[in-house]
Amino acid sequence: MIVFIIVCFLFLFILGLIVIKVITSIFDTRSKKKAITIKFSSINLGLLALVICILLISMCCLITQPSIEEVISGFLVELLGVLFDILVIIILFGYLNDRREKKNRIERHLEEIDDFRYWSSEESKIRILGILKRLNKEGHFEVDLSSIDIGGKDRNNSTLLQRLILRQSRLSGTKMKYCRMNGGEISRSFLTGAKLNESSFTNCNFKGSSITYTDLSHVTFYNCDLSNCKFTEETLLRNAKFVKVNISSVIFDEYVILEWVEVDYSFLIQLRSLNEENLGALSNCLVVKHEKIEGRKTRECYYLHNSDEDYEAVRSSLNNSISVNLLYFIRNPQFEF
Predict the structure, then answer these.
(1) Residue 269 lies in a domain
(2) For every residue of 194-220, which 3-state class applies, written as one string?
(3) Mean pLDDT of 306-311
(4) 273 belongs to a structural domain
(5) Domain annotation covers residue 216
(6) What is the pTM of this model?
(7) Is the Cα dihedral 243, 245, 249, 251 positive or negative?
(8) 323 and 244 fall within a common domain
């Protein structure tokens, strides 16, 4: 009986040290000197637990005077309960520790972006793109890219943004000139004074974004979702191109600048479904139907252009400079296509 009780004490002592060691090792992210202090304190806690166990078990044995069979069966029952509790505690502490480490990594990545803010060197662009990829892997998509430059040098040396995801992000004064984004996302974000000119976006999601004072000249949107977007203030759409895009519930402010924006037939069809207040600058916009010769094929395309000039005057001036098949105002009663 006495030998069995001593064995139980030793087992509980060793088990207590193991549990304390595991828990302290999970949270041991400090210096070695601190780790040594934790190690000695864990031994003291183990000795204290051993003394408490000896006192409790001794008191129970003196009061109840159980047989050896009762002690063994009770010990086994309690042992299973303790082991289950230890397993749950280790899993819980591990999960909380992973969450804490992930949060620390995300904060460190965001601080690194702040360090490269206002830089325009090639090294800073490469570092920022790498940080954005790591943030996407961590599942963090809300980033402040204000005054960040990740643009390319020219059309032959453009920046590739492959499947980059930005949600509820800020792109105030962000420079993304000469960028190529494929399968990416800039949804529910705020683009204010951003420079996206000379860029192309393919299979991208801009749903719910607010675009203000942004330069979108010579930008190509191909098969993109622009639903619920707001083009406001003096956003420049000069020689931009919209092909197979979704513009449901889009809003064009009256101050948006449209200069020979190329669109396809589906774009014009979707314009018909927009409310009068959503059209804004498009209300008095000219629509030019033009046939392009590409190789041996002829392709129909349409151009949108802001104009305050007289209808016939614009028609005559355009006929002198460009091959025009049809020319209408969006809200002109004759507008048919």
Answers:
(1) no
(2) CECCCCEEECCECCCCEEECCECCCCE
(3) 63
(4) no
(5) yes
(6) 0.74
(7) negative
(8) no
Residue 34 has a pLDDT of 44
Phi, psi values for residue 40, rounded to 5°: -65, -40
Between CA 290 and CA 327 the distance in angstroms is: 9
* Residue 268 is assigned to a structural domain of this protein: no
Confidence of residue 36 (pLDDT cuts 50, 70, 90): very low
Examine the fold and report which residue of 54, 78, 112 is the final residue of a domain before the chain moves on.
112
> How do residues 106-160 score in pLDDT, each as one tens digit?
999 999 999 999 998 999 999 999 999 999 999 999 999 999 999 998 888 899 9
Q: Residues 6 or more apart from 30 whose CB is under 8 A from it?
A: none
CATH number, domain with residue 136: 2.160.20
**Does residue 39 have a pLDDT over 50?**
no
Q: What are the phi and psi torsion angles at 253 (to 5°)?
A: -70, 155
Q: Is 135 exposed, middle or buried (0-12, 13-18, 19+ CB in 10 A)?
A: buried
Q: At 70, which helix (H) or strand (E)? A: helix 68-115
Residue 10 dihedral angles phi and psi, to the nearest 5° = -60, -40
Which of 80, 112, 144 is the last residue in one of the domains? 112
d(CA 279, CA 288): 17
d(Cα 9, Cα 11) in Å, to the nearest integer? 5
Q: Which DSSP helix (H) or strand (E) runs through 115? A: helix 68-115
How many structural domains is the chain composed of? 3
Starting at the earlier edge strand, list the strands of the sheet with 220-222: 159-162, 179-182, 200-202, 220-222, 241-243, 261-263, 297-306, 285-294, 326-329
Look up the domain containing 254 and give its range.
119-261
For 234-303, the DSSP string reads: T-EEES-EEES-B-TT-EE-TT-EEESEEE-HHHHHHHHTS-HHHHGGGTTEEEEEEEEEETTEEEEEEE
Tell me the angle at which helices 68-115 and 2-26 cross, rounded to the nearest 10 degrees: 10
